[in-house]
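Write out the bound-state structure for S-adenosylmethionine.
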Amino acid sequence: MTTARTRTDGVLVDRYGRVARDLRVSLTDKCNLRCTYCMPAEGLPWLAGPQLLDDDEIIRLIRVAVQRLGITEVRFTGGEPLIRPGLVRIVSAVAALEPRPRISLTTNGIGLDRLAPALRTAGLDRVNVSLDTLDPARFAELTRRNRHADVLAGLAGAVEAGLTPVKVNTVLMRGINDDEAPDLLRFALEHGYELRFIEQMPLDAQHGWDRGTMVTAEEILAALNAAFTLTPDPTERGAAPAETWLVDGGPARVGVIGSVTRPFCGDCDRTRLTADGQVRACLFATEESDLRGALRAGADDAELADRWRTAMWGKRAGHGIDDPSFLQPARPMSAIGG
Ligand code: SAM
Ligand code: SF4
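---
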């Protein structure tokens, strides 16, 4: 019965009736920053060349997802997706698909000022740029690289190229940048960026996450409410991970992604493909399904689609961070694709 249902409607449905429409594709596990909540200073053992899907393999799997599995939104991420040499070509091939999915990119912004026009021409619709602080010295501490100015240039370049609305992702850490919430929002309002705070999650390679010191959605909202008037955003939230509020009556908005304290797993519509061709039903999944092996062994599109459906059918109801039995996945965030 299970199989009949997944095969009849074709889409990526799971046992709980959730349908995945949003595909996150990691293009590389490498990065030019070393954010402390993501990677150790020395980096990680990177995937070797042959382990990575090549550009054509990525394009093929996205085509299968869009044309056979009902994916309507493709987001490229990593690691740092801007360092993948074939990025513009991949975006352009995905934009040529029928039906055309919406295409976005999550990036640390370094080099985006140079790449934004070509990405826009290739068909990229919009970007999320990660920025955790307005202070260059703090940025250097937090990311272990002195690249703050490059990120600001990337943000400006994205707007200039029309990759809008530009969203800014911020992770606050206690005693490090948690005093900056109102300033970051002021900065975003001034530049027309839409800011969203993300609760820190247990996905760092060093396993340094601590629930007790994590800055919670409630604390973020309290800090923002002290400086602005936030009112609930009347727009339908749907499957969006961010809860949003109007700032001082709107139309500007701010979002909070309370993955840990306000989980939204019941409405999740995401499926993930890693740079080495593994399907993950969830950021926190401990199981993966190998599409690269099947693809290289000669599987046709129908078989790849079937494998993807089977992988999603097994998606768990929730991430279980609060369960005593919770185990952090072996892959860190940078190798899954955030
Ligand atoms: N390198 C790109 C970037 O930084 O935007 C894309 C990949 S990064 C893994 C995607 C997003 O995940 C970023 O906004 C980053 O801040 C966030 N992130 C990384 N580690 C995290 C963690 N442990 N908890 C919450 N968010 C995290
Ligand atoms: Fe790189 Fe993004 Fe991880 Fe920072 S959060 S180290 S920019 S992958």
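---
Residues 31, 37-38, 77-78, 80, 106-108, 130, 169, 171, 198, 200-201, 203-204, 333-334, 338 surround S-adenosylmethionine (ligand 1) (CB under 6 Å).
The longest strand covers residues 102-107.
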